[in-house]
């Protein structure tokens, strides 16, 4: 069975060689991101995902914060030099999406539906994962590369302060994006028998 969706899903890869050679405007990319997030599912239609789409100096500031934070933690100079190079590759893109969970919405659901209270936090994680997948694939469809990074919670306070984010928005991931300056490497897959069962 032919599937355009699966072709796009295969096109979505972790791109680390990012550049600024993107013809789409920030406004067009913002609309692409917000539409993908809005159309992603969430348990009870709770819509707990929040996304902050940053461009230019604001995007660079995210990676400045990451570098400054890790400089206090990574004490080995050789290791920190590798870290700086990695961060520079994210800064080389044109923008960054911050993915956050609105914890106040999660807590309200826990109170409203106590029988399911233990599930709402994991369900919020599922919702944010679905949104990340949708945005990442939508960017790939436009020929824009991205990767998903997790420097939270180390950078949480500085990010909230820098961009005046609500305290109840919990940072979950950072997605730098830009032009694809070098393709992703080969992707290995586990043996099908380890992953799937076909019962007819």
Structure, described:
Residues 10-178 form the Nitroreductase domain. This is Nitroreductase domain-containing protein. It is globular, with a radius of gyration of 18 Å. The model has no long low-confidence stretch (mean pLDDT 97). α2 packs across α6 (120-141). The chain has a single domain (4-195), classed as NADH Oxidase (3-Layer(aba) Sandwich), CATH 3.40.109.10. It has helices at 4-11, 26-38, 56-71, 77-91, 103-112, 120-141, 156-163, 192-195, and strands at residues 18-19, 49-55, 95-102, 144-146, 169-180. Helix content is 48%, strand content 16%. It starts with a helix and ends in a 5-residue tail after the last helix. Strands 1, 2, 3, 4 and 5 form a five-stranded antiparallel beta sheet that branches. The protein is built from eight helices and five strands, in the order αβαβααβααβαβα. It has 200 residues and is an alpha+beta fold.
